[in-house]
Amino acid sequence: MITRENKPIGIAISLNDTIINDELRVALMIEAYKNSHLSLGQLSKALRIDKKKALKMLSLMGVDAIDYNLDDDMPFINSYL
What is the dihedral of CA 64, 45, 20, 30, to 10 degrees? Predict the structure, then answer.
């Protein structure tokens, strides 16, 4: 813990391989998903987890997510075109 005048102002952590390779990768992939740079499928593939786990993780982090396949609705959409 980092303190100033006996008041906590921060935490120092070691940037070991686990933090850099795992946690930072997860944070970057989720940020890319939130900014629409990755789809749910791409996110789950990049994190090496299935879509269900990716949806659960996003939900726990407060990130809006839905597993949606546009192809399922194309016949309905095409009927109006």
Answer: -10
The domain limits of the chain are 2-78
**CB-CB contact of 51 with 40 (8 Å):** yes
- Cβ(29)–Cβ(54) below 8 Å: no
Query: 52: how many CB neighbours lie within 10 A of its CB?
Result: 10
Q: Tell me the per-residue pLDDT of 17-55, one tens digit each, with 9 for 90 and over.
A: 776 778 888 999 999 999 989 989 999 999 999 999 999
Q: Which residues contact 81 (CB under 8 A, 6 or more apart)?
A: none
Amino acid at the residue 65: A
Least confident range of 4-8, 10-14, 31-35: 10-14
Evaluate whether 51 touches 66 at the Cβ level (below 8 Å). Answer: no
